[in-house]
Design a protein that fits this description.
Elements: E1 5-17, H1 18-22, H2 27-30, E2 41-53, E3 56-60, H3 70-76, H4 83-90, E4 100-102, H5 108-111, E5 115-118, E6 121-124, E7 130-134, H6 135-142, H7 158-162, E8 166-169, E9 173-176, E10 179-183, E11 192-198, E12 201-205, H8 228-245, E13 248-250, E14 259-262, E15 268-270
Parallel strand pairs: 3-4, 4-7, 7-8, 12-13
Antiparallel strand pairs: 1-2, 2-3, 5-6, 9-10, 10-11, 11-12, 13-14, 14-15
């Protein structure tokens, strides 16, 4: 993308309940597209990006991380090992090389790799990096409700705060030339999309606005969303922009198509080269 380089990173496979992922859409419809396992879970993947731009090495989303006990690993079917770190190593990137980490929000499947265990302490995975998130999201993560507190693990964000590595935003912002973030409310109040522009191309990382390509359809909204009617209107706006601009869209959790192009009637084709 011009002077910007964008690479896919695998943040790790996991599984979530299919009914929760598709909300009011009946199983007889969604199981035609995604086959659940014996526990009614569907395959998911924490999709992340490596970006080199403006002299910076940037990681967008840090996946599930490695700080899982056996019980939770079993519930969520979390992949063993450290897939994100393996992906970075294949690109020749070590944690100390990373300048910026952008979190769309702080749920465990997007920020789990923000930190790692070192000895008997949990520390930031990327020791030199500034971590970017909306201020309102960090505040909410610290006082999440019974409705969504199971999605927030303090060990994924408090060590970053203790190290003084948060860069908190108050609304839409340019991070570096060619990379902006913009709020996409619905999944929660302060989730943000990341927009990458360069070389006449646009890639948008929409996280849980479209967790999979199947969620392009307007009424296919996850039950996890705190404000589903807000999600509906945000999706309506973004589907139009993505279609008209012929943008490439990165799906937050699609296990088969990480990056796609939206065509007529919301049909998705895998983006060439991804």
């Amino acid at each position: 993308m011009g002077e910007m380089e964008v690479r896919y990173l695998d943040g790790g496979g996991f599984a979530l309940d299919g009914g929760a992922m598709f909300g009011v859409v009946p199983k007889v419809l969604w199981e035609k597209r995604v086959v659940p396992d014996e526990k009614n879970r569907i395959r998911m993947r924490a999709n992340s990006l490596l970006v080199r731009a403006a002299g910076k090495t940037i990681v967008i989303e840090t996946g599930n991380g490695t700080k899982w006990d056996a019980k939770l690993r079993g519930i969520y079917g979390v992949q063993d090992g450290d897939p994100l770190m393996d992906s970075l190593k294949r690109e020749g990137v070590e944690p100390k090389d990373v300048d910026l980490v952008i979190n769309t929000h702080l749920h465990f499947d997007h920020a789990g790799g923000n930190t790692r265990v070192e000895g008997n302490r949990v520390v930031p995975t990327y020791p030199r990096a500034k971590y970017v998130v909306q201020r309102g999201e960090l505040e909410h993560a610290r006082k999440a409700t019974e409705r969504d507190k199971a999605s927030y693990f303090a060990e994924n964000f408090e060590p970053v705060a203790e190290a003084g590595q948060w860069e908190l935003l108050d609304g839409d912002a340019e991070i570096v030339p060619g990379i902006t973030v913009t709020k996409i409310p619905g999944h929660n109040a302060d989730i943000q999309a990341v927009v990458l522009e360069g070389g006449g191309k646009t890639v948008v990382f929409v996280a849980d606005l479209f967790p999979t390509r199947h969620h392009i359809a307007l009424p296919w909204i996850a039950a996890y969303d705190l404000y589903p009617l807000m999600t509906l209107e945000t999706k309506r706006e973004w589907v139009k922009k993505i279609e008209e601009g012929k943008w490439m869209v990165v799906f937050g959790h699609d296990a088969d198509v990480a990056v796609g192009v939206v065509g007529e009637k919301g049909m998705v084709e895998k983006a060439a080269g991804w």
